[in-house]
Design goal:
Length: 327
Amino acid sequence: MTTHFVSIIIVSYNGISYLKDCIDSVLDQDYPRGDYEIIVADNASTDGSVDFLRLRYSGELRIIEYGVNHGFAKGNNLALRHARGELLVFLNQDTIVHRRWLSELVRGVTDAGYDVCHSNMLLPRNAEFDGAEERRFPKNIYYYELTRYGHVHQVVRKYSDDIIETRALAGGSFIIKKSVLDEAGVLFDECFCMYSEDTDLALRLVRKGFRIGVVPSSVVYHFTRFSFGLNRYNVWKNLIMVRNRMMAFWKSSGPGEFARVLPYLLASQPQKVFTRSREVKNSRIKSALLACSTVPLSLISLLWFIATIPKLEKKPVRRGLAEQDQK
């Protein structure tokens, strides 16, 4: 495989408990070290993580400090201006990657001919996640696909090396050609701030005819959990998730098409909560009650979305990277 220079971007916020394992695994790759750079963009962390990175990884990575927390979407967009690679990789801070992670992602968009590729991503609820610390290679493929409800759902398949074409994009670990991004416009629409910005990007890419694939041999362990509690944070999270799904589909479809998918979008969070609750062995009754508790939140999200429509551009900004660099 011919090597290409790659820029790896990690947006960080108060991630000191994750960053050591994440960065150590990114530095320990079978891809030539001189052919990739690591950029950590910090969203005004207050946990000392920037000082930790400077002390431990001096000369190994570039640190960009923001004075405010820009969120995930804008944080990545701003960091992108510092990237020198012809291939761009975006990785969440709460991850550990396998030693073949990077080389296999690169293979997906070079030798295999895909435009964008994301990783085989294991979550704590997956039995094989126990191999995270040893970066054990899994026996299954864990990837995301877009459901008719507008949210992504994890699919589990028996392992094979074949790249799987998808309509979804896992924002936690993916690679994109710089030339593709220049044609597609902005990376993440900053109207989203966080949640569903990767769905919006995937919808834009698919509409333009680009191919998205998941590379089974690019393995990532993602330390993320799904919480069922009705605390203040989860209420806000449910509201913004549903609103953002509506925004993503509104931008990528005409009024008639959007009207057809709107009932599914309204049902998306109750359906997702019910499915996730059953996956962790909750009873059908408890799962149904948890799902029903999100119905009022979905209706509030609809009102929030309607209020947001005048601020949304019907089509994403068509400004490529070259033009962004001139700003």
